[in-house]
Specification:
CATH architecture of one domain: 3-Layer(aba) Sandwich
Helix content: 40-55%
Structural class: alpha/beta
Shape: globular
Low-confidence stretches: none
Number of helices: 9
Mean pLDDT: 95
CATH topology of one domain: Rossmann fold
CATH superfamily of one domain: HAD superfamily/HAD-like
Length: 199
């Protein structure tokens, strides 16, 4: 049995931190896992910037409420879910993802959790497990699933490499160049066709 494991941000919805960077005019918050492979380092950097500017969870959630899925993403996901099981594996957080999952029709999501003080300040984060995407793909495989994985960033490469088929979707030129063995797709139609062929 197959299960498709998809990244969330950059694949189905816009990058939350980029949207928040634009909403707050704080360019440092534009950094994502496309720029920084070390997620722990990236999140500590983000939390420090939020603290400097006196921003917390509510301000980020206000921005997330304005974000819509990427054009065609829900239709793609609906068609894919008719064909096979789909799990979204994301390094985002419960506190960010819920409104986006509603707009996508409540697909299955495995993500992480923020540590938030009573005043709304983000003080830390709790990862679901180490190397969460790769670990989850290996766990699914241990249950008898064949995995097909896709994403756009450095933190997706582990699950892509470990799967029977893997794809890059709307990724950077640098990642395409470094990992030419993985098809780099740009539209949901070609993405759906590539997954169909791999099933």
């Amino acid at each position: 049995m197959n299960v498709v494991c998809l990244d969330l941000e950059g694949v189905l919805v816009p990058e939350i931190w980029i949207a928040f960077s634009e909403a707050t005019n704080i360019p440092e918050l534009r950094r994502t896992t496309r720029d920084e492979p070390d997620y722990d380092k990236l999140m500590r950097f983000r939390i420090e910037i939020l603290k400097e500017h006196g921003l917390g969870l509510k301000e980020i959630q206000d921005t997330i409420a304005t974000i819509e899925p990427l054009d065609g993403a829900k239709e793609f996901l609906d068609k894919l879910r008719e064909l096979t099981q789909v799990v979204i594996l994301s390094d985002t957080f419960d506190q960010f993802a819920k409104p986006l999952m509603k707009k996508l029709g409540w697909p299955s999501l495995f993500c992480n959790t923020l540590e938030v003080a009573d005043n709304g300040e983000i003080t830390g984060f709790k990862m679901r497990c180490p190397q969460s995407k790769l670990t989850t793909v290996k766990a699914l495989q241990s249950c008898g699933f064949d995995t097909i994985a896709a994403g756009d960033s450095f933190n997706d490469l582990g699950m892509i490499q470990a799967s029977k088929a893997g794809f890059l979707f709307r990724t950077t030129d640098a990642i395409k160049k470094e990992y030419p063995q993985y098809p780099a797709l740009e539209t949901y139609d070609e993405f759906l066709n590539a997954i169909k062929a791999a099933l």
